[in-house]
Design a protein that fits this description.
CATH topology of one domain in chain B: Rossmann fold
Radius of gyration of chain B: 18 Å
Distance between the termini of chain B: 10 Å
Strand content of chain A: under 5%
Number of strands of chain A: 2
Order of helices and strands of chain B: EEEHEEHEHEEHHEHEHEEH
Structural class of chain A: mainly alpha
CATH class of one domain in chain B: Alpha Beta
CATH architecture of one domain in chain B: 3-Layer(aba) Sandwich
Number of domains of chain A: 2
Shape of chain A: globular
Structural class of chain B: alpha/beta
Radius of gyration of chain A: 23 Å
Distance between the termini of chain A: 32 Å
CATH superfamily of one domain in chain B: P-loop containing nucleotide triphosphate hydrolases
Shape of chain B: globular
Helix content of chain A: over 70%
Strand order of the largest sheet of chain A: 1-2
Oligomer: heterodimer
CATH topology of the largest domain in chain A: ABC transporter involved in vitamin B12 uptake, BtuC
Chain lengths: 427, 250
């Protein structure tokens, strides 16, 4: 009975707090200790990916004089943008424990529609309208996948593998074999090839700081009103300082003149603020709304979610729509970077997108990971491609290293979990 | 004696030619722990699935507070204040305690989660059940022991003014100390004037917490007795069918 006594009778100190702890109490030091405790328990989040990013960056800086130049830095960001967006798109379905192998060709089909509709020599549709049509195509494709996965109950791997093949055919039919359409809309090309004015970069940074400060303030006010403890305010300042410093360095680097010859090129590429806005919105939805919470719940234990009254089918359906639609956005980035769309557009990228999410710390078993993790993972893979390209190594090395990093990331994840006594397989 | 919260009379359920419940009556009283025992295949699960609204009965009456009600889906059961804690717990490992307790009924403010309010209510509910084994309500459920998980699952069921809590084998997978903790929790549920219906195979547990014992044998309620009026041997006899209940049905 001693166990009962222990659990029933209040702790000896009668002035016990009237609430159970929430891990938010204590000084900065306590918070730091708790954080390292979580790390030791295998809850490492994006940390291995960030470490990988830093190590690879240092390595390439040492190996190549071109790596750490203003020009290459901007180039790296625009090269990475497509993969970052695709990896973020995939997070929505990977969190469910599902997969979308057709995300790449989905962007291909949608962009094929875009170029055929908006081609000035052909149908000459207004480019905004054409863009809306291609985004809607993403929505429809997401609904289509969702129907088979959530409603009929076919494994998403099979459905999307089928679509991966089928959509290549659709793309061929839309574009015509061997065809290639040049992107002729300056607005689309501007996404990856134009930059904000130098002051625009700083405005962007200030907005980021304001948004971060405002959400922290509102969160703290809500918690205070409910009478539960807030994390020490020092953490908010630390976070703001981190954004200010890291963002400041990036903006300052991008504001240097990186042009060759007479043409001065400087400023933050337009794709960066677009990506940041989508990242912020997506994270907001995943962290703070029912839709987001239910995605995590289904990924953790679908039966528990169902019994709790979650409409599992509808949520899955919506997640596939989110994935396919964001995949189309990644297609827009890619078309802007490449400048053209052909029948093979988007065919080869989807596995890199999945690899990026996994490298960043998103679990393929579902239920664990964040959008920012996928974005960081995509940056790691982009650094590898970019750095190895600068070293003039044969193309095969790129694939080898990327594959190696993926397996390394999965191994780090598995080992940290095993040491913590956790199981790899989620039940 | 109090009037029962739930009163089943003569409920029947068959699956094709197999009749699983052959006219069962059962009462659950506020502030009392009613145990439901019986061997495998006796119909216990079918009986509670009907109450949970998962699998409606074919025939018979269900009264809640004396009113005849229809239980066709889990939402109707929840609206009547009937909550079920399933044997396999139904918690999400990757979410924390607060998130699990509020899953499917999150508190919103301006369309987004009011985490502070949820954290407070979760904490207060656990506190009101005198739970002392949970250090932080923001722990992930994956880091909890079996007993703590059961605690969270039970606390989840009483978060929103449940009137009847049905516990399906709450101690089946637990060690000795954790079983004690959960049984203490079951008693505290009853002290809050909740009607508790507990299914168990473990007669020691049943005799420790139950006020009434109901025995199902092959789809029939063969005995409904006050715990103080019977013995473990008798109950085993009723369960196996080797003994017939001769007392007065209450």
């Amino acid at each position: 009975m001693s166990a009962v006594e222990e659990s029933v009778t209040p702790a000896p100190e009668a002035a016990a707090p009237d609430l159970i702890g929430s891990g938010q109490e204590g000084s900065l030091r306590d918070q730091a200790t708790a954080y390292f405790q979580r790390l030791r328990n295998g809850d490492m989040g994006a940390l291995p990916a960030i470490a990988g990013f830093v190590v690879l960056s240092v390595l390439f800086t040492v190996l190549s004089p071109y790596f750490l130049t203003e020009r290459n830095f901007a180039n790296l960001l625009t090269q990475a943008a497509t993969l970052v967006m695709l990896a973020m798109a995939l997070v929505f379905v990977i969190l469910l424990g599902e997969i979308d192998l057709s995300a790449g060709v989905t962007s291909g089909v949608a962009m094929s529609l875009f170029v055929v509709l908006s081609d000035p020599g052909g149908l000459a549709m207004n480019w905004i309208l054409a863009l809306v049509v291609s985004l809607l195509a993403g929505v429809v494709i997401g609904l289509f996948i969702g129907f088979f996965v959530a409603r009929i109950g076919i494994p998403s791997f099979v459905v999307t593998l089928g679509l991966f093949l089928g959509f290549q055919g659709v793309q061929l039919i839309i574009i015509g074999s061997g065809g290639l359409y040049r992107i002729q809309q300056p607005e689309i090309l501007a996404i990856q090839n134009s930059n904000l004015p130098t002051w625009g970069g700083w405005v962007m940074l200030v907005i980021m700081l304001l948004v971060s400060a405002a959400t922290s303030y509102l969160d703290r006010r809500r918690r205070k009103r409910a009478g539960v403890p807030n994390r020490t305010i020092a953490l908010v300042w630390a976070r703001l300082a981190a954004i200010a410093i890291a963002g400041g360095v990036v903006v300052a680097l991008l504001n240097q003149n990186r042009g060759t010859g007479f043409l001065a090129v400087s400023g933050v590429p337009i794709v960066v603020p677009i990506t940041l806005v989508i990242l912020w919105l997506g994270t907001f939805v995943l962290d703070r709304t029912r839709f987001g919470r239910y995605i995590y719940a289904i990924g953790g234990n679908a039966e528990a979610a169902r019994r709790a009254g979650v409409k599992v089918t509808a949520i899955k359906w919506a997640a596939f729509v989110a994935c396919s639609t964001l995949a189309v956005v990644s297609g827009v980035f890619s078309a802007s970077k490449v400048g053209s769309v052909d029948a093979a557009f988007g065919r080869d990228i989807v596995l890199s997108g999945i690899a990026a999410a996994v490298v960043g710390g998103v679990s393929l078993f579902g239920g664990r990971g964040r959008l920012i993790h996928a974005a960081i993972g995509a940056l790691v893979i982009a650094v590898i491609t970019n750095g190895l390209g600068l070293l003039n190594l044969p193309g095969g090395v790129n694939f080898l290293v990327t594959g190696g990093v993926l397996i390394l990331a999965a191994t780090v994840d598995a080992l940290s979990r095993r040491r913590a006594g956790g199981s790899l397989i989620r039940t | 004696m109090n009037s029962p919260i739930i009163e089943l009379s003569d409920v029947k359920k068959s699956f094709g030619p197999v009749s699983v419940l052959k006219g069962v009556s059962l009462s659950v009283y506020p502030g009392k722990v009613t145990a439901l025992v019986g061997d495998n295949g006796a119909g216990k699960s079918t009986l509670i699935k009907g109450l949970a609204g998962v699998q409606p009965y074919d025939e018979g009456e269900v009264r809640v507070d004396g009113e005849v009600v229809a239980l066709h889906n889990p939402r109707e059961a929840a609206r009547l204040g009937i909550e079920v804690v399933y044997q396999d717990l139904a918690l999400c490992d990757n979410l924390d305690i607060v998130q699990n307790m509020f899953l499917g009924r999150e508190e919103l403010s301006a369309g987004t989660f009011d985490e502070g309010r949820m954290e407070r209510e979760a904490s207060e509910t656990l506190q009101s059940l005198s739970v002392r084994t949970v250090k932080s309500v923001r722990q992930k459920v994956s880091s909890l022991s079996g007993g703590q998980r059961q605690t969270v699952a039970i606390a989840r069921s009483v978060l929103k003014a449940a009137r009847v809590v049905i516990l399906d084998e709450p101690t089946a997978a637990l060690g000795v100390a954790q079983t004690e903790q959960v049984l203490a929790l079951v008693k505290r549920l009853a002290e809050r004037n909740v009607g508790v219906l507990m299914i168990s195979h473990n007669l020691v547990d049943v005799f420790q917490v139950a006020d009434y014992i109901n025995v199902l044998y092959l789809g029939q309620m063969v005995a409904s007795v006050e715990t103080s009026q019977t013995t473990s041997d008798d109950v085993v006899g009723y369960i196996t069918g080797s003994k017939t209940y001769t007392g007065v049905n209450r």
